[in-house]
Amino acid sequence: MSTSPVHIETDVLVIGSGAAGMYAAIEAARAGCRVLLIDRSLIGRGGATVMAQMTVAVALGEEAPDHWSHHYKDTLTAGRGLCNEPLSQLLCEQGPECIREMEAWGVGWARKDGKITSAFAPGHDRPRCVYVDFLNTGPAVSKTLRTAVYKLKSVARAGDLCVVDLIKSEGEVRGAVAWHAGSGAPVVISAKATAVATGGLTRLYRRNSASANMGGDGYALCLRAGAPLIDMEFVQFFPIGHLAPRLIGMDPIMWDPFRYKLGGRLLNRDMQEFTDRYGVTEDGRYVITRDLGTYAILKEVEAGRGSPHGGAYLSFQHVPEAKLREAFGPVIDRLAANGIDLTKMPVEVAPIAHYHMGGVAADVRMRTEVSGLLVAGEAVGGANGANRLSGNAITEALVFGREAGRTAAAHAKATKAVPAPNGAADEAVALIAGDGPKEVPNSAAMLQRLQAVMADDVGPLRTEAGLKRALAVVADMTAALGDRPFGDGGRFDMQRLDWFDLRNMLTVARSVTEAALARTESRGAHQREDFPGMLPEWRLNQTVRLNGGRLEVSRPPAPRTEVAAQ
């Protein structure tokens, strides 16, 4: 193992290379800064963006009249009264400009009669979601941004870097310390401004739709650096994640594009449509929002009306084969190779962890409470309130990433020289370079245990007993993890990587669970079985801080005026 730290200096450090991170790097470079873009995976190929198959919500108004204010209104409605309205406005107002810039870079949005076409998605008042094609939007966005990044000589790129801690000195973030998986060496990066764009936390859950590196790293890094988190209790579950039959080599959330184009029927064990029991009548259309869809499916399962594997049926049997092939072409053959004939059988679907509405508290310039520290994309909390409107995720990544890059560049230009760590990196370097304890628990088993308790007790339906049970497990696991990394720290030491992951995941899991326990109501994606109503006094945002090693959940003293529930 290498114990000699590698030292790097840059103007702007961007951590995470999904859409938000790449756009931040591009924008900071265009402003004349030297940028270092790092990721624990391959640049531009990890995170959530590259896995997104579906659409991007934006009020272009090319096919039909639209305006960002309509998109904004729908975003606030979906957020159940908890959206940070300036952030929501920024997302909706600046989205069209980012989409058109992406088009100029060659992303290839789908067009009809020369105009960028828009699809309808649940929660929107009109068709406004653009796409490349229904199963390739995320990869196309990622490829376009990668190409733009690679053209910029002022953007240096480095993969296989797992950030262990941010460097903080004199109240300001001055870069980060990372573990280089390929060599085991500590890497000390000094920067004038640091932007965290590491995505969400869905890896905390047993069934999830995101990459394996989405364990809430950025939340934990910012929390330890002194930045507060907001809305941590709101985890969005995608209601129709694939459950059965077995599906190999295809995304578990692939059924959303089918529902966009063809509707499809959600059925219970008795082959009855059931969403009308929960306030939304679909009749073969796709109009139910994600929080309500998740709730409806789980309630049917709870009532004994679920499908054999514990979900619901999704049926396209009423759709002629010719129409299926017209809409999805070779995808139909890939399904056939998995033994799935949609003209003859339904599939089983169930909720799957998909997105996180919470994150690091930031202003409209993506600044946190800590000087020199910015956030972007899903790392930002508050824009989507208690429930994200369908299609807002990539829009958020592009808009917030671009804004973070601009702000980081301005901060860097106002800083005369790259600040030296001055000993602030020593503790993190020692953590990376130190020898691990001889007797350690099985780290892979620990990860599975955490995912299981989060799924079972901090999932879509919550109770006080379950949340307290989860907190006890998290406390037990935190004690077992200890304060010294597992493994010997050599090349690609997966035990050590698991330890760094668990350190962050346990902190974030506790943040989610403590906030969920404190919120004694049901709102959006947070559903308390023991407090089923949405209460006016809870129209407020909870904040999580780390104080002397202890997590503290707080809320403002006065609630805002309640709005009618959707």
Strand count: 21
Q: What does the radius of gyration come to?
A: 23 Å
Number of helices: 14
Average pLDDT over all residues: 93
- Which class of secondary structure composition applies to the elements? alpha/beta
How many angstroms separate the termini? 56 Å
Residue fraction in strands: 15-25%
Principal-axes shape call: globular
Helix share bin: 25-40%
State the major sheet.
Answer: 7 strands, mixed
- Low-pLDDT sequence parts: none
Which SSEs are present, and which pair or pack?
Layout (H helix, E strand, L loop, with lengths): L5 E10 L3 H12 L4 E4 L17 E2 L10 H11 L6 H20 L6 E2 L2 E2 L12 E2 L6 H14 L4 E4 L2 E9 L2 E9 L5 E11 L20 H8 L4 E2 L4 E10 L10 H8 L2 E3 L22 H13 L9 E4 L5 H8 L1 H8 L9 E10 L2 E2 L12 E3 L16 H22 L12 H8 L9 H15 L3 E2 L1 H18 L12 H25 L8 E2 L14 E5 L2 E5 L12
Parallel strand pairs: 1-2, 1-10, 2-7, 10-17, 18-19
Antiparallel strand pairs: 3-6, 4-5, 8-9, 9-10, 11-16, 11-20, 12-15, 13-14, 14-15, 20-21
How would you describe this structure to a colleague?
The radius of gyration is 23 Å and the shape is globular. It is built from 14 helices and 21 strands. It is 34% helix and 18% strand.
